[in-house]
Amino acid sequence: MSSAFFSALSHLECSRTGARHDADEVHTTSDAGAPLLARYDLERVRARVTREEIAGRAPDLWRYRELLPVRDPRHVVSLGEGMTPLLPLERYGASVGVPGLRMKDEGLVPTGSFKARGAAVGVSRAAELGVRGIAMPTNGNAGAAWSVYAARAGMRSLIAMPVDAPEITRTECVVAGAELYLVDGLIGDAGKLVAAAVAERRGYQEVSTLKEPYRLEGKKTMGYEIVEQLGWRAPDVILYPTGGGVGIIGIHKALLEMRELGWLTGELPRLVAVQAEGCAPIVEAFERGDASSVPFPDARTVAFGITVPKALGDFLVLNAVRETGGTAVAVSDEELLRAQGALARAEGAFICPEGAACFAAVDRLRASGWLRGDENVVVLNTGSGLKYPGTVPVDVQTLPAHGRIPG
Ligand SMILES: Cc1ncc(COP(=O)(O)O)c(C=O)c1O
């Protein structure tokens, strides 16, 4: 990378109290127990960088490097993540009455899910701060992503995931040399085990969702990319499958930063938090008008990545949704699996069940009139369907070698 590389990171800020924390020390949450948000010297960015200059950079998320926390380019750990396609979905969009529908396809990043963005930035910054090992609970995809980036950084990784997490994500952790444990429980149970283990180990940093500040920075680049890919304009609506909420909080943060930089003008897009009916704590809190959620009992959905009964950043998700005039919607597993098949048949895209939940939500919101037919709508498909082969029943005939295909 060029010597002009720099990060305008200035400090960390408590998302509840606004208290300042030193960005060049390893932190978990703030003194108030809330997520820390990275803050940048946006004046300096405005003076040094233009949107045109960004357009000439390599097609990965490091093109937004001034707005990322890694100070020295030698610490960047990259597998080529970012700048995923923003695909128009003309046929599918027309069929659901939203011709301006597009999909940001995160199935194409390393490890097949958007978790690579958070891992690339989180591991790079951890390496820069001298961390030697990362430890995390995961619903699968994040563990896979952090394991491979940790391997590339020469760092150790300790991962715990529910026994029901997508099986391929176990393999991804193991092949990258992670120390992996399966937990007979949900992500919160895995989190307690990891926290206890980290307390007894030296050199490991706990990087659970929103308990370290930089995963969010990696994920916010989805927001930068969407706006850049639309010619520095925002769509009307963005739908996001919400578990821990890092992606939607990150997209909101990116939009606010771009507005302050003068890179984005006009109304912000309405942000929609999509959950599954089997685990919808944020949707319930939104409907009740509450500022935070309560743990969702007996959480269960085929969209495993969004099985998060209680998110640390729930208040930030609810704030992002309300501040942008958005909404929160829960769909059934049946609806999302139907959307997964319909999209593949109409557009050739095999998406993950979490992304499919957003397509099911488009249907619901269009039917209720919340979404208008003339709006520009972006759905985040957060991962590849290849990671969840079990979601598609394959009922086909096996022929004898010298058999005959029916005419
Ligand atoms: C494919 C997929 N989509 C969405 C999510 C939810 O992510 P977030 O924490 O950003 O809400 C996950 C988390 O595991 C996931 O694996």
Describe this structure in words.
This protein has 407 residues and is an alpha/beta fold. The protein contains 13 helices and 13 strands. It has helices at 42-48, 51-55, 90-95, 115-128, 141-153, 167-175, 187-199, 215-229, 246-261, 281-288, 314-323, 333-347, 353-368, and strands at residues 9-14, 20-21, 36-40, 86-88, 101-105, 133-137, 156-162, 179-183, 204-206, 237-241, 270-276, 327-331, 377-381. Strands 4-5-13-10-11-12 form a 6-stranded mixed sheet, with helices on both faces. Strand 6, helix 5 (141-153) and strand 7 (156-162) form a beta-alpha-beta unit. Helix 4 (115-128) runs parallel beside helix 5, helix 5 (141-153) runs parallel beside helix 6 and helix 8 packs across helix 9. The radius of gyration is 21 Å and the shape is globular. The model has no long low-confidence stretch (mean pLDDT 96). Pyridoxal-5'-phosphate (PLP) binds at residues 113, 115, 139, 141-142, 209, 241-247, 305-306, 352, 354, 382-383.
Topology, element by element:
Layout: E1 9-14, E2 20-21, E3 36-40, H1 42-48, H2 51-55, E4 86-88, H3 90-95, E5 101-105, H4 115-128, E6 133-137, H5 141-153, E7 156-162, H6 167-175, E8 179-183, H7 187-199, E9 204-206, H8 215-229, E10 237-241, H9 246-261, E11 270-276, H10 281-288, H11 314-323, E12 327-331, H12 333-347, H13 353-368, E13 377-381
Parallel strand pairs: 5-13, 6-7, 6-9, 7-8, 10-11, 10-13, 11-12
Antiparallel strand pairs: 1-2, 1-3, 4-5
Helix pairs in contact: 4-5, 4-8, 5-6, 8-9, 12-13
